[in-house]
Amino acid sequence: MPGLTYTAPTSVDAAVKLLAGSSGLAKVLSGGTDLLVQMRSGRMKPELIVDTKKIPGIMDIREENGGLIVGAATPGAVVEANAAMNKAWPGVVEALDLIGSTQVQGRCSLAGNLCNASPAADSVPALYAAAATAVIVGSKGRREIPVEQVPTGPGRTSLAKDEFILEFKFPPRPAHSGDAYLRFIPRTEMDIAVVGCGISVTLDDKGVCTAARCSLGAVAPTVLLVQAMADALVGHTLDDATLAKLDAAAQAACKPINDKRGTIEYRTKVAGVLARRAAKIAFDRASGKTVKAH
Amino acid sequence: MNYIDSNLKVVGTRPIRPDGVDKVTGRAIYAADTRASGMLWGKILRSPHAHARIVSIDTSKAEKLAGVRAVVTSADFPNIASEEAFVGEGPMNFRDLSANIMARGKALYEGHAVAAVAATTQAIAEDALALIDVKYEVLPHVIDVDEAMADNAPVLHDDMFTSGVTPKPAKASNIAKVVTFKKGDVEAGFKTAEVIVEGTYTTKPVHQAYIEPHACLATYGSDGQITIHSSSQGHFMVRAYTAKLLGMDIANIRCTPAEIGGGFGGKTLVYLEPVAVALSRKTGKSVKMQMTREEVFRGSGPTSGASMDVKIGAKKDGTIVAVNQILKFQAGAFAGSPIGPGCMCGLALYDIEHINVVGYDVVSNRPKVAAYRAPGAPITSFAIESALDELADKLGMDPLTLREKNAARNGSKTHYGVTHSNIGFEQVLAAVKTHPHWKTPVKTGQARGLACGFWFNIGGESSANVHINEDGSVSAATGSPDVGGSRASMGMMVAEVLGISVDKVRTTVADTASIGFTFLTGGSRVTFATGMAVTQAAEKVVDELKKRAAMIWEIQADAVEWRDGKAFPAGSNAGAFEPLDLAAIALKAGRTGGPINAEVSVNAQGAGAGFGAHICDVSVDKETGAVTIERYTAIQDVGKAIHPSYVEGQIQGGAVQGIGWALNEEYIYNDKGQMENPGFLDYRCPVASDIPMIEAVLVEVPNPRHPFGARGVGEVPIVPPMAAIGNAIRRATGVSMPHLPMSPPTILAALSAAGK
Ligand SMILES: Cc1cc2nc3c(=O)[nH]c(=O)nc-3n(C[C@H](O)[C@H](O)[C@H](O)COP(=O)(O)OP(=O)(O)OC[C@H]3O[C@@H](n4cnc5c(N)ncnc54)[C@H](O)[C@@H]3O)c2cc1C
Question: What's B40's domain CATH number?
């Protein structure tokens, strides 16, 4: 059995060097709530672990140019305790808050959730809807890409071997904006989303939607950013006709599989239901109402 | 003696459980916590195929791996003949049990053990499993019970000829037996019926889902003396099965019960112990084995899934005149589902003139079923209690009234021959009627379901001893593993009889060499049967204490009275002596005849049957099919609650397991017959936030056959939930829910099929 080396570098450069220099499987570790579980079950056998948590700033939240920056390894519990994130992105916060239990909350991160690249990851649809970008560092330097360009398939990302995510940038929030995330699970917690839906909207003074981003989880090999859902909302108030169009657009976008967590038919139907419900919450929030989604 | 109407000081109170501190501080020693010096790790290789002939097993590569000490296969176990087992709970055959713990010739389900390895570390043992070369000839498999009964189904055992039918079938099949129960003339009964309901119901196999996976540590000494530490519902059961499966004398095996992390019936048979002993015999070292959760799901017993047809005929006034019920139970890979209780329990609650019940015990390619709380009863009652709800609707009658009208009473004769006596079903129904939950109008957006349940409860063989220590403190021991707080209730009964406070009594579970034979903890028997033994032992000790006081005072023994933990002279004629307490008598024990103790073995008869009724309010999200249990009340006749908190705990636990059974728990198989959800992520037991506070209401109709009036309480509460929830969902949606689990996709599909 090959040995396992654990490292916890204190700078980006050192981390990148370690990743680039490894000959076998090297894995970046944030909270470890996916990685350690996969290692214990024997599914993942890395030779090198690069724990990022000692890198300065990677577990912090700060404001910059009117937007918010969340360090890649910031634990869910820290994000939830952050007033600025709650005010600007309640949908992202509630999505992250759904992950696991109190214990898992102390560790689980946005970067881990995104890079584990599960189509059912809870915070990812909310990140897509929020138009967040990922700041990626590697041997070739630093680049910034929209989050939806990170996962490429189940368990796969577009990151090179020597790259990792340093932080997420959330754009400045215009007035009358709101977001929401809903998932369906058969139980009330400790379950994997059968369907997830994230919606972010900006309204004008009359409640007409001027901008929208919508995404669906667990209905395709990756989380989907669905333009047709956004199109159904933009230019409209949230009346019954709009809701029906949104529902249809969500259902049309689904490309799910039958598996132990749900049937194609079920997932498709529920995607439409969640889209309607999430849109209502996002619109309410954009209109200044405080709404609890879960 | 009988204490039922006496002024009890300890029984009925709620002292802190004696095993509680160890458990909440993590100090309790469970099966996986024991180690021995130089011990090896045992691991089992399991079949990846649902049904396959084992062509050959080549263990040579594995044996050569450094650190591997032994490999065993079925060749290392005696090939024993078919013989009904006399141990364990539920029907089991020694030959089948042997083939279940180590496949012989054929692998009959995915997860079936085919070989085992002992190595110096767990990692080496696991690597060695991969080096065992098993050649399989994969055979067609069958999972579902109806499909397993079909003419063209793959047959598991070519020597299985359905018993219970004449003439004996010429062709082997998967139907192990057919059982029939008849009362009256069901044809004639239906002719007099004015209203008839009919339905087909299915339930899925569900696992007992105890939190502690099976584990053991076994040592085969060079003198042939064997010790086993393991967690089970009966260490005498472990001893007998291990002896039989390895062809050893029972006397050479000593089994020590570990603290048990749940069993619910699933630990009433063995999986690992005989394998660990065989590996230990081959290596001369202690061998430790413990299953992973995945192995627990793939390799150990759930309870049966079933397919059932029910037809009920009634008069317009609600009198049920005739019932026809057909039950097909999955037994797993070997014969022996709880089809008998399945045929009996559903209709045991009602006094019905004409009954015809036919049950089929059917094998298929899945793990052999094991007992699970009230084996068979929850399945049959799901069908009967659901059909009764439909009948109530059709009659325009309240579901409680329908049950009151037909409820079994003392003197009602069941279709399986027993006449009910000292039962409390009517009292349970009366408690439903007056309970605030039943009387509160259903909230808007919700609906209410009611269902009832029955379990026989059993007695049987138990041993207990009570010993007065040198300082007057008391040790009590029984042979019953404590799965539900029995050390507390045993200690309380002893304290009550001795007239002392409960913290003066220490209760333990003694190993097989330290106490007389005790049948396993199952059938809700311990408080009843072992409670009877321990009470009688305490009474004997009281008699002895009186004798000793008489010797000290030099008066006649019958001139001594025992009260509040002390000997008193009985009246002024006996003389004027200061009362003697336990310590005073114990101090002089050496001079009055030696140690003061008593051991009693009983074969307890007269376990009072148990009845319960559950009320459940639900709301249904009609767009997603999600069900929320809004309010839940479980009412049960418990005879006498020795320790009411643990009785309530049993009732709440049973209800919660029933809620899981009702809503989400199921085995998901792929087309190869492999289980796709062998873990708690996708095998969905309820989580805490799924469950409202379950209100347990104790009705106490004393069982006159027990010194304190106790009857079994642990099994009844899992019987009603599925139908109570199903009935509530039906009332909420207007759509019948005859198939378990009533998971969100199932409900949504049923709603859309009904055009809702
Ligand atoms: C009990 C339990 C319950 C759970 N419930 C949920 C749930 O409800 N919803 C849900 O979505 N998930 C759930 N999860 C999964 C997991 O908690 C989340 O996916 C979590 O967000 C992962 O974050 P992490 O920081 O722990 O990731 P890690 O385990 O540290 O990493 C996950 C993956 O991302 C990679 N990675 C980590 N950081 C970076 C980085 N900075 N740059 C590039 N790659 C990186 C790792 O190499 C690894 O492949 C649960 C897990 C457990 C154990």
Answer: 3.90.1170.50
**Backbone dihedral angles phi then psi of residue B18, each to the nearest 5 degrees:** -65, -25
Give the up-direction half-sphere exposure of residue B608: CA atoms within 13 A in the CB hemisphere.
29
Contact B687 A260 (CB under 8 A): no
Q: Which residues pair with A209 in a beta bridge?
A: A203
Distance A52 CA to ligand 1 centre (A): 13
Amino acid identity for residue B265 in this structure? G
pLDDT at B73: 98
* Cβ-based contacts under 8 A for chains A and B: 49
Q: Domain A61-170 is of which CATH architecture?
A: 2-Layer Sandwich (3.30)
Q: Where are the domains of chain A?
A: 5-51, 61-170, 177-285
B45 has pLDDT over 60: yes
Q: Whose CA is nearest to atom 7 of ligand 1?
A: A99
Which of A186, A188, A270 faces B743 most closely, judged by CB atoms? Answer: A186
* Same domain assignment for residues B384 and B453: yes
Domain termination residue (choose one: B604, B632, B654): B604
Give whole-number Cα distances, A194 to A182, B575, B585, B659, in Å.
11, 82, 69, 21
Q: What tens digit of pLDDT does each residue of A7-27 get?
A: 999 999 999 999 999 999 999
User: Tokens in use for A272?
Assistant: 């439409």
Q: Which of A190, A192, A263 comes nearest B745 by C-beta?
A: A263
Residues with CB under 6 A from ligand 1: A 27-35, 37, 52, 72, 98-100, 104, 107-109, 111-113, 115-116, 121-122, 159, 164-165
Structure tokens at A124: 């990812």
Domain co-membership, B644 together with B730: yes
Q: How far is A43 from chain B (nearest CA, A)?
A: 14
Checking DSSP bridges between strand B354-363 and strand B175-183, what pairing results, if any?
antiparallel
Tally of domains within chain B: 3
Q: Write down the CATH number for the domain with range A177-285.
A: 3.30.390.50
**Same domain as B652, residue B560:** no
The crossing angle, in degrees rounded to 10, of helices B377-395 and B721-733 is: 30
Residue B150 in domain: no
Domain end, chosen from B562, B588, B604, is at B604
pLDDT for B601-614, tens place per residue?
999 999 999 999 99
Nearest-angstrom CA–CA distance, B749 and B756: 10
Atom of ligand 1 nearest to the CA of A120: 11
User: Interface pTM (ipTM) of the complex?
Assistant: 0.93
- Residues of chain A in contact with residue B684, where contact means CB-CB under 8 angstroms, are 186-187, 191
B392/B450 Cα distance (integer angstroms): 11
Q: Across the strands, what pairs with A180? A: A199
Alpha-carbon gap: B686 to the closest alpha carbon of chain A (Å)? 7
CATH of span A5-51:
3.30.43
Atom of ligand 1 nearest to the CA of A121: 11
CA of A33 to the centre of ligand 1 (A): 5
Residue with the nearest Cα to atom 28 of ligand 1?
A: A32
Beta strands B694-699; B626-637: pairing state: parallel
User: In the predicted model, is pLDDT for residue A2 greater than 60?
Assistant: no
| Global confidence as pTM | 0.96
How far apart are alpha carbons B469 and B474 in whole angstroms? 6
Residues of chain A contacting residue B626, judged by C-beta atoms under 8 Å apart: 184, 186
Contact B664 A186 (CB under 8 A): yes
Got the DSSP string for A53-117? TTSTTTT-EEEETTEEEEETT-BHHHHHT-HHHHHH-HHHHHHHHTSS-HHHHTT-BHHHHHHTT
Looking at residue B137, its pLDDT comes to 98
Which structural domain range is residue B370 located in? Answer: 306-457+608-753
Residue B590: CATH number of its domain? 3.30.365.10
pLDDT in tens, B208-253: 999 999 999 999 999 999 999 999 999 999 999 999 999 999 999 9
